[in-house]
Amino acid sequence: MAAKSPADGTPRRPVLSVSARKIKDNAADWHNLMMKWERLNDNGFTTANKIVNMKISEQFQDNKLEIACDNNTTESEKPTPKYNEELDNCCAEFLETLKHMTKIQLKMEKLTSTTKAICDLEAFHHGAGNCTAPFFHTWPTPYFYEVSLKLSEMYKKELQLKQTIVQEIAHSADQDLMMVYLSSWLYQPYIENSSKLLLEAMLLETGHRQC
What we know:
It is a single chain. By secondary structure, the chain is mainly α. It has six helices and no strands. The chain has helices at residues 6-9, 13-72, 85-127, 141-168, 175-187, 194-205.
């Protein structure tokens, strides 16, 4: 009887190799996207802080002007609020930051979808009676998807909050509310502390980090 070739004995090896490489690339992509997000968050906070300071200053000047007008002019003589070009530019910059963050969040969703596809491929091969050994050290393949999904959901919720902040911050007249918007932008309540641990664990598992 003819001996089986190595290829016959290990039909999964090429798929494993490609899948493992893709999982490792995805881990690196998660790291890069999360670092870019943090930089954009810092930039956005700087812009939001400028907007809030300008709004508070504007309110102060308007109040002074209103008092002066009440004393010296009639209703028809009161000046109309003037256009603030610097505030408008900051709002445009803030919106641009949000657009970049939206692109990052969409890329995170794509990474999660790719990982799910790899899991489905693995499940198909396992169903054919093949070995279920981990790609790297200890993580079963579905756990990469679980981690990606957790991270993706955190950033999705955080993006929705940031969309609200960008829409509302320049239109609010309530200083306390503006401070809440600022704090929420900076501290990102929907991105849990566990996100960094999950990322580091994934980098460690895939060999991007050393023990």
